[in-house]
Amino acid sequence: MPGDAGRAAAEAGRNDRAAPPRPTMAAAVPDEAQAAAARELATKAASLDELKQIMDAFEGCNLKATAKSLVFADGNPDADLMLIGEAPGRDEDLEGLPFVGRSGQLLDRILAAIGLDRRSAYLANVIPWRPPGNRTPTPHETEICRPFIERQIALSRPKVIVSLGGPSANLLTGSPDGILRLRGTWKSHTTADGTVIPVMPTLHPAYLLRNPAHKKLAWRDFLEVKAKLRELGSL
Ligand code: URA
Ligand code: URA
């Protein structure tokens, strides 16, 4: 069917979310003030603990008003591998931890398959507050949250990043391409201090749950990640 590839591409980036509603349109002239405030605050954080406190106190993102928790991170901040998803879902919001629902369980199995677990990986999301009803975050919300995840990467200094799903790959690598095109080849993320970190974009585990035939693609991507970690002496 002609529409299949496009639909798969659109879905590949998505989260645990059953048929997320379209995001509301960003304002014609988006308010830059919150994004500027987030940038200034994030830069001030000298440690991950400070960053978490700053984000907890931040009132510039409307997603915080409807979310129960700040979903900051799970796993080991000293790990060489960092996994970055899109946004928390319901389970993550309830527990205050990323990837604890069904897609998190699949992610744990994938990590185990390359000999890792949550003590040897650090997990976070591009957006730290659950969007209401799991809707797609708006571009404006994403721009407000960007400085926080960028600072989180800079402070945890992973040697390798795996981005899960399209939105995370787009934000971290700067490429606008769809995830089915991006996945499987090394890209990079450059931190504010100029450190270049290899990024492997791969399919989102929620997408793999709905499209199990594509697990073999993710499997290939994670073998690349394993090889890279070996090469860097991390495995
Ligand atoms: N999907 C994500 O992108 N992140 C989570 O934490 C859970 C599901
Ligand atoms: N293990 C799984 O369950 N799925 C993958 O995609 C890779 C490893």
Q: Nearest-angstrom radius of gyration?
A: 17 Å
Oligomer: single chain
The shape is globular
Number of strands: 6
Can you tell me the residue ranges where pLDDT is under 50 for at least 5 consecutive residues? 1-6, 13-19, 25-29
Q: Largest sheet at a glance?
A: 6 strands, mixed
User: How confident is the prediction overall: mean pLDDT?
Assistant: 91
> Span from first to last CA?
43 Å
How many DSSP helices? 11
Strand content: 5-15%
The side-by-side strand order for the widest beta sheet comes to: 1-3-2-4-6-5
| Bound small molecules, deduplicated | uracil
Helix content: 40-55%
Helix/sheet category: alpha/beta
Q: What series of H and E elements makes up the topology?
A: HHHHEEHHEHEHHEEHH
List the helices and strands and how they pair.
Layout: H1 4-12, H2 33-44, H3 48-57, H4 63-66, E1 74-75, E2 81-85, H5 90-95, H6 102-113, E3 122-125, H7 139-156, E4 160-164, H8 166-173, H9 179-182, E5 187-190, E6 196-202, H10 205-210, H11 215-231
Parallel strand pairs: 2-3, 2-4, 4-6
Antiparallel strand pairs: 1-3, 5-6
The chain binds uracil (2 copies).
One uracil (URA) binds next to helix 6 and helix 11.
Q: What features would you describe in this structure?
A:
45% of the residues lie in helices and 11% in strands. The longest helix has 18 residues, at 139-156. The protein has a six-stranded mixed sheet. The chain contains eleven helices and six strands. The chain has 235 residues and is α/β, with parallel strands linked by helices. Bound molecules: uracil (2 copies). The site of one uracil has 9 residues, from helix 6 and helix 11.
